[in-house]
Amino acid sequence: MRFKRPETVRQESATAIKAPSLDECLAKSMEVFTESGKPQCVAGCTVEQHCVAVGQIARTLISFFPAFLVNLLFPRGSALTAAVHDCGKVSPQFFYKIQNAVGQGEEALRKYPYLRKYMGRSADEFTGMHMGVGYATLRGLKYQGCAEVSGQHHGYLCKPNILAGSSDSESFGGPEWEKLREELINRLSDFFREKLPGSLNATQICALSGLTCVSDWIGSGSYFELGSDDTITQDLVNKAVAAAGFRKLRVKPGLEFRDIFGFEPNAVQSALQGQCRSIGRGVYALEAPMGIGKTEAALYTAYQLLSSGQATGIYFALPTKLTSDRIYDRFLCFMRKILINPEDFFPMLLHSDSALQMRELRKKYLIGFGAEGAPGNSWFSSSKRGLLARFAVGTIDQALLAVMNVKHAFVRDFGLAGKAVILDEVHSYDVYTGTLIKELIDRLTALGSTVIILSATLTCSKKRQLVGGSAADEAEDESYPLISCRKTDDSGISVCPVSLPCAGSRMSFSFHCEEDCLNEALERARSGQQVLWIENTVRESQKIFRSISPACLSGRIECGLLHSKFIQTDRFAKENRWTSVLGKSSSERNEKGRILVGTQVLEQSLDIDADFMVSRFAPSDMLLQRSGRLWRHDFLKRPESARREMWLIAPEQEDAESNPQKAFGSSASVYSPYVLCRSLEALKNKFRESGGRIEMPGDIRKLLEATYQDREEDHSADTPAGKLYMEMLYGKSIGSRHVPGIKELRSRALSHISDNGVFINDDDAVTRYSPDGESETGIIIVREWSYDARRKLNFYRLMDGRVIEIRPNSRFEIKDNAADLAMALKENTVMCRSHFLEGLMTVCEACRFGLDCLYYRKDQDQAFPFLLMQAGDDYPSTLRRVGMVGQPDRYEIRYSRHLGLEINKIDSEQL
Fold it and tell me: With contact defined as beta carbons under 8 Å apart, do 391 and 348 qualify?
């Protein structure tokens, strides 16, 4: 394809550098196939064409936003700001690069001989790449905000490396090239009939950077593989935007709560509705008992905001992948109820393993969602784009990346802008993640989003930290249930106590040794009761299961174990089994007694109901959460002997304060010893005052404040409690290991906020604290592996008996096939702390075994964060590494479908 000749020929002076015309400046090259079938790189659209397309896309995307969000984030000139993002491509470095790519480099050198000095030189050696040229040009024109948008449209701010250089310096091509860039900006200004905004605040720069980046992605797609003579039409722009999944939202108006959920709202749900009607956009914190319907309350509030034009979509953020997976179906059903055009909006599932799951979900729900729901056909499937979808469910980690120092963080900000963001189970996060959540809430508020915080056990101080307010509000804070609200752009907090129509319920608790609890659990199960036993570590849960299961077998009692160290297929099978027999719709419940032993996964992820509960001692809020699984549904029929009781395995208070590590055992490594001691003190006092009775929900707030309220007498290390408090605040050393305190964790979290000028990849972002940066490794467990050299195939017999075939370098196979293989392997994977395993597989080894299909969407890494292990003939099976030289001798790794993963060391180091 030949270039259009310039209409006017520039005269070159003795000192000026001859620059081409704008019609000669290409933005892209494109690949075509000749008649012989060979690929050929030819000239694509010009810089001006590409800029016009991106600006028109940006203007179209802005038209989808409600007026309040446009006024807040997108001032007049926003479309033009997006359009001028690539003005830096009008530079000698980029000009020669493209000319050379399309095979006309020699012609360009003959016409513009000075380009020779750019041959073999890195573009960023002169300018910081074309983003740096654009930054310098717009900064020189006194548009600092627009300069930052242009400078970071590839993910991070790229400034010129030559600090003293001006926009018309020789490094950028001199005055002639600068005039050409200014000519481009003027042409675009005339086309869009607007001027660049003179000033932008930090939030607007963030939102405009996201808008520009997204518009650039769409404008670089297949719809705009154009030649220099082609025209950018609005119809073409509309098709490209729609194909990417951006469409007009149409919400059914006037729906009542019962229209969506099929039942009348309770007092808590009605109260939150009323607060939303009077306050509108802002920050809400709903504190209410377990099982009262906080999820439905939050979703209906989000509907109110959507239907009134005060929200652009919903992101439901949960603490774990499991809780995200569990709520997806409910969220999808909710969407179908409230949208006029649900087929235009397929909700995303967003977490570290969701790419493969989304493929399966699209298959499952393809009917009714049109072609855009087809497998592999979602523009939002990229990890950076997931939050751009109008509706999504996922982990809190995905939202936290919006405030962290990762590339394209502003794309996530743009995706969350104006949405209703629901943060569930907020009490479950530690200080590190909690600090990031506070930053996220502040950012979301600035972006016009509404934040709905849900918790059953949120302390007053934590709530004030997240929502706002001061200790002066303490009297009203102590009500429970309670709704606290802060309207957007208002520092004042309003609170709405909720009176429940009934007096609530009463739970009994008492303290016992482990042996008594074992005997009592068996006796209760023999009488037909459903017993739940919750431990704080996987190892302790396995130990209890080993102790109790023989007696259950002889007594015809069903016994099970559930924790996070099962392969996915086994874990899902167990979850489905126990939710079916202990759920609210069970038809088998009263057939026999049962005992389910588990860890914290039972606190929040499963809808199960127990007649009797045993729990290893934990912080007060965790114990209250666990009690939410005790007599959860009042309408269930229970054995006559059943009483709403929780037995706690706890040490004596004096032993706990003098030596918490010994008294609490492994629990002291999971929870703060100071908090454990305060919780023990609070519950012991409650036991003495009430004879071991807790009124629900009336006593929830009292127990939380008794545990977490600041005590001045603990502010020095002169007492055992004071020493533990200081360790919690400032950290401590255990042997050679340093355990950071609250202050250090908060400081570490703030160091990862995105405004510190250092950018990292998503995979390196730390949204959860782990000791010494410790990571997790996936162990792929197979029953048998073999390799057929003739057919060049790896054969894997999985734990459930299935056999799959994988070729070496499987990621280069057809994508759908690679995805199926990856899903099968993921289903047979269990995560484990890396320090229990000696070394990872190399990329070369992973490719040889076909395991690289697990990264069928990604580039290969230097280290492969998975191990392949083969089960032995013993039971539980001893696992042996496949594909790595040397068997680790420090740990014995075993797996069984009843116990899960076990890792044992000679000194019995904790799993």
Answer: yes
Domain 266-497 in the same topology as domain 22-243: no
Contact 797, 782 (CB under 8 A): yes
CATH number for the 266-497 domain, one of 2.60.120.20, 2.60.120.10, 3.40.50.300, 3.40.190.10? Answer: 3.40.50.300
C-alpha Rg value of the chain to the nearest Å? 31
Q: Does domain 22-243 have CATH number 1.10.3210.30?
A: yes
Straight-line distance from the first to the last Cα atom of the chain, in angstroms, rounded to the nearest whole number: 64
Secondary structure letter of residue 561 according to DSSP: E
Q: H/E element holding 613?
A: strand 612-616
Q: For residue 158, which amino acid is it?
A: C
- pLDDT of amino acid 813: 60
429-447 pLDDT, tens digit each: 989 999 999 999 999 999 9
Amino acid (one-letter) located at 254: G
Query: Cis ω on the peptide bond leading into residue 771 (within 30° of 0)?
Result: no
Mean pLDDT of 234-245: 91
CA distance 442 to 433: 14
Please state at what angle helix 742-750 crosses helix 431-446, rounded to 10 degrees. Answer: 40
pLDDT, position 885 = 52
Look at residues 645, 668, 649, 669 and name the one whose alpha carbon lies nearest to residue 657: 668
Task: Return the closest-CA partner of residue 202 out of 83, 78, 388, 73.
Answer: 73
CA dihedral 124, 129, 133, 136 (to 10 degrees): -60
Nearest in space to 609 (alpha carbons), one of 265, 287, 290: 290
Edge-to-edge strands, sheet with 793-797: 784-788, 793-797, 803-806
Assign 507 a pLDDT band (cuts: 50, 70, 90).
very high
Looking up tokens 């005992």 gives 595
* Amino acid letter, 4: K
Count of beta carbons in the 10 Å neighbourhood of residue 162: 17
Q: Where do the domains of the chain lie? A: 22-243, 266-497, 510-729, 774-905
Q: How far is it between the farthest Cα atoms of the chain?
A: 103
Q: What is the 3-state secondary structure (H, E, C) of 217-284?
A: HHHCCHHHCCCCCCCCCHHHHHHHHHHCCCCCCCECCCCCHHHHHCCCCCHHHHHHHHHHHHHCCEEE
For residue 496, the SS3 value is: strand
Q: Are 172 and 139 in contact (CB under 8 A)?
A: no
CA dihedral (521, 527, 530, 535) in degrees, to 10, reads: 0
Among the listed residues 543, 546, 547, the one whose alpha carbon sits nearest the alpha carbon of residue 535:
543
Which segment of 123-127, 165-169, 480-484 scores lowest on mean pLDDT? 123-127
- Range 586-621 burial, b when 16+ CB lie within 10 A, else e: beebeeebbbbbbbbbbbbbbebbbbbbbbbbbbbb
To 10 degrees, the CA torsion angle through 727, 729, 730, 735? 30
Average pLDDT, the chain: 86
Distance in angstroms (rounded) separating the CA atoms of residues 569 and 574? 9
Strands (E) across 661-724 are located at 693-696
d(CA 132, CA 151): 6
Tell me the β-bridge partners of 829: 780
Cβ neighbours of residue 117 under 8 Å, at least 6 residues apart? none
CA distances to 198, 404, 513, 597, 719 from 520, in Å: 74, 49, 11, 14, 37
User: In terms of pTM, does the model score above 0.85?
Assistant: yes
Name the residue among 480, 332, 337, 457 with its Cα closest to residue 392: 332
Q: Does the pLDDT value for residue 781 go beyond 60?
A: yes
pLDDT > 60? residue 886: no
pLDDT range class, residue 8, cuts 50, 70, 90: very low
Topology adopted by domain 510-729: Rossmann fold (3.40.50)
